[in-house]
Amino acid sequence: xxxxxxxxxxxxxxxxxxxxxxxxxxxxxxxxxxxxxxxxxxxxxxxxxxxxxxxxxxxxxxxxxxxxxxxxxxxxxxxxxxxxxxxxxxxxxxxxxxxxxxxxxxxxxxxxxxxxxxxxxxxxxxxxxxxxxxxxxxxxxxxxxxxxxxxxxxxxxxxxxxxxxxxxxxxxxxxxxxxxxxxxxxxxxxxxx
Amino acid sequence: xxxxxxxxxxxxxxxxxxxxxxxxxxxxxxxxxxxxxxxxxxxxxxxxxxxxxxxxxxxxxxxxxxxxxxxxxxxxxxxxxxxxxxxxxxxxxxxxxxxxxxxxxxxxxxxxxxxxxxxxxxxxxxxxxxxxxxxxxxxxxxxxxxxxxxxxxxxxxxxxxxxxxxxxxxxxxxxxxxxxxxxxxxxxxxxxx
Amino acid sequence: xxxxxxxxxxxxxxxxxxxxxxxxxxxxxxxxxxxxxxxxxxxxxxxxxxxxxxxxxxxxxxxxxxxxxxxxxxxxxxxxxxxxxxxxxxxxxxxxxxxxxxxxxxxxxxxxxxxxxxxxxxxxxxxxxxxxxxxxxxxxxxxxxxxxxxxxxxxxxxxxxxxxxxxxxxxxxxxxxxxxxxxxxxxxxxxxx
Amino acid sequence: xxxxxxxxxxxxxxxxxxxxxxxxxxxxxxxxxxxxxxxxxxxxxxxxxxxxxxxxxxxxxxxxxxxxxxxxxxxxxxxxxxxxxxxxxxxxxxxxxxxxxxxxxxxxxxxxxxxxxxxxxxxxxxxxxxxxxxxxxxxxxxxxxxxxxxxxxxxxxxxxxxxxxxxxxxxxxxxxxxxxxxxxxxxxxxxxx
Amino acid sequence: xxxxxxxxxxxxxxxxxxxxxxxxxxxxxxxxxxxxxxxxxxxxxxxxxxxxxxxxxxxxxxxxxxxxxxxxxxxxxxxxxxxxxxxxxxxxxxxxxxxxxxxxxxxxxxxxxxxxxxxxxxxxxxxxxxxxxxxxxxxxxxxxxxxxxxxxxxxxxxxxxxxxxxxxxxxxxxxxxxxxxxxxxxxxxxxxx
Amino acid sequence: xxxxxxxxxxxxxxxxxxxxxxxxxxxxxxxxxxxxxxxxxxxxxxxxxxxxxxxxxxxxxxxxxxxxxxxxxxxxxxxxxxxxxxxxxxxxxxxxxxxxxxxxxxxxxxxxxxxxxxxxxxxxxxxxxxxxxxxxxxxxxxxxxxxxxxxxxxxxxxxxxxxxxxxxxxxxxxxxxxxxxxxxxxxxxxxxx
Lengths: 193, 193, 193, 193, 193, 193
Description:
- The structure is a homohexamer.
- By secondary structure, the first copy, chain A, is an alpha+beta fold.
- Chain A contains five helices and ten strands.
- In chain A, the strands form three sheets. A six-stranded mixed beta sheet of chain A has the order 6-5-10-9-8-7. In chain A, strands 1-2 form a two-stranded parallel sheet. A two-stranded antiparallel sheet of chain A has the order 3-4.
- In chain A, strand 5 (91-99) and strand 6 form a beta hairpin.
- The first copy, chain A, is elongated.
- Chain A starts with a strand and ends in an 8-residue tail after the last helix.
- Chains in contact: A-B, A-C, A-D, A-F, B-C, B-E, B-F, C-D, C-E, D-E, D-F, E-F.
- Chains B and F meet through loops of B and loops of F.
- Strand 1 of chain C pairs antiparallel with strand 1 (3-8) of chain D, so a sheet runs across the interface.
């Protein structure tokens, strides 16, 4: 049922405009119980725009923020290939990682060293990517399963994980990781009788 | 910079309207690098509305969906107090829980039994709640730390957790849980030298 | 695909607003190849409205024009029942009728006299009513079949007719009638061999 | 008084846009008693448009429907010149004609044969063309007078006719014809004393 | 030609809304060469409004500013009647008056004393009132002629004057006065031969 | 708080559009107590526009009116340099000047002659320029101080003046001048004891 009209200064790329209308449709439908068919969003590019005493015309707009999901995917891809230089391009100053057990790290190289004490190799299979849009910050969760090889050479797979990424200004400023690796090695649970 | 205008049939509660404009502002700012001060959203209630050959006037609108974060908070509160009847009111048909180790359950009572094999008591301290609006589905993540008592009576606290809730139509249809309980009991990691 | 927003001064009745959005959807779809599902029309009631140096607020609006189709139906109903007084209420000054053979009349009573020379009785079965909206003027066509009794007492039925009504300001100012009565009596066509 | 704003995807031709605003003005004025001077309609081309989960940008729009009046005029012109091949281009599958006496035909050639039994020649003088916009269907009526020559070589003129055309998707799917030819030959009416 | 749509939170009085649409029509016509008939302005009251992270609903709006022309008229009326207490209610803190010769005063009583050295009595006939809207500040000019009695008892009339008032927040913070009193007493001009 | 949207036919120059949004922001803030940060104005160029039965598309618009302040500045500049030919280009037919003492003139040359009887030379220092937008007419006031030389060769400076200009269609049709020259020569005021 909702009709959402967005007025922007001209110049945002078609990809960004498509992302914007898609975000807004989704955000509205989290409140208003409307079907996709009943949800209309469109963008009008204003030919002149004035706010706060400043007048903008076409092309004066800042570039759109990158797609947070894409940023996370490219970061994870680079980390998976141990291309830390490429990975670092996606990081904000003050970047921080929190790993299972509450281990806090700030350098990707540090992470590599830490991982060497836990498994020989690991690979993530992504099942879901969720984005939480919060204004200044966008939070991206990705979850799925881990596959790899323990330090003793035995293999594992299907172990659940979830990563939380906090992005500001299109850069990742915090990664937090949870997974069932410890559970897989030594379940907390008492065996059912 | 964006000005977002929403046209709705009349009758949505002020709380829902406030939630809607807040969602839309956040969703837009995940694409357009605009400040809060530069982001304007408003709702116009159409006096008559026609789409798909049907004409609506005030009061014909369906009620708004409940706030997904609030649903999750109330569900967790009820579960924490072992008030399963209250908790079940927030569940969709086919509700499913996935717990560490990939344990799948469908009944809250089942969960209580399972938990008895892992710890004497547990309490969640919530630090963050993130909502991902996806149209049909809203995903809510809440994360924080666990405090409780192991089966041997010893205490624990500050153990990280994250829950993922999938809601459709204002009801929870899936909960997935990750935490560091196993890591806390038996870290995967080789002690650093 | 079109989204049509109408701004009106407040005060038009819900029926008139529903008629307006329905008209506009139909009119737009005569140009833009959009489905009903893809056609959205809504009305916003302006709280204050200024044009041509005059400022209107709610309730200052003139009443809506009556539905031209309804006017025609009520006129024909009254004429059918020979209730000329009721029928005359729907007529504009200068009302004129044109009947088969180009016979022009101005009075309903005159029509009754003329008809007496053609048939004993007649009744219209309406199949279709089409409205052409032209701004100052709305033209209504209704067509269907005639049933009745000739002067010689023999019956007829299924004879095609069409009436054209020209309305201005909600009143009928001209009626024009075509039908196959003469054709039924004495076909122009040479019998096919 | 009404201000009507239409949002379209870009790419509709100026002629179609002009036709659209003209239709909408006329359609609105059939409900709201506004003068031409008080009726404003404008089209905004959205730079991005999303409905029903699909996102359109400029140029993705389907072409506008042809002007139904123009289709009818060109069809009648071709038929008048016995250029049936040209005329057929304007016909929808399942095209059907209904002529005085309720004669139903499906082929233009059939019509030519039928006419030969009625008159030597005929020509239409168009006085009025009315369009009824109904969404899927647009109905066009044209009326005026017939001029020609009877089978016996004598001439006729000023004989009233009206044609009803039903168009869908810019093609004619039904033509219905009424006229006073039979009345002219043999009036139903008893001579007035 | 311009259509100007204003979105406000609900609650502004009809008088203020009428003033707003009138101001906007005038302001637009100072740039766009449109007639009154071609200038449309309307106000939509948003049912919910969010900017800068704050959400407003009806009735949260601040009251409108008073009409600057009316403020000036009431101030001048009170001063003319030597009702300084009433006049002071229209003054902003730091109010300042500048009179012919560049005389600066801050108290209305001071003005009265100063005037006693110039004339026995004076009365203003207002011919024109012009408002310059500048955002924070509105400047009002009123001009006309002075009538009164010199200190020697002789009368004067038709002497031109203009007052400039600077208002902020609906209060007068500066008055500046020019007139031809000195010119009337002792023209600068050399008598024409 | 106000969001002001203006729909124009395309083709107004960016300078004119910037002027328009600035005027509208100022005009609105004279009624609604909104900050600059809370005032948003934007222009949408309609791709097709219909009013009063006429349909406009891009480029059909009349050129914008010139900035009244700029017209006055250029006129005063030309007059100051005694370039009466340039100055006259800014004048409307029927132009009239009113000078101190109520002296009315119609020709710039006449003004030059009149001034010769009052001072040897004069120069204006502009401090403020106020524009009052009134629809057909824009009134511009400029005020500041005069500097020059009396007929006896002695100098003066800091003498207050204000000019009122009435513009229609971008041309000056009336100038009215007030200043303290007479006051400076022969104050009305009794010396304070």
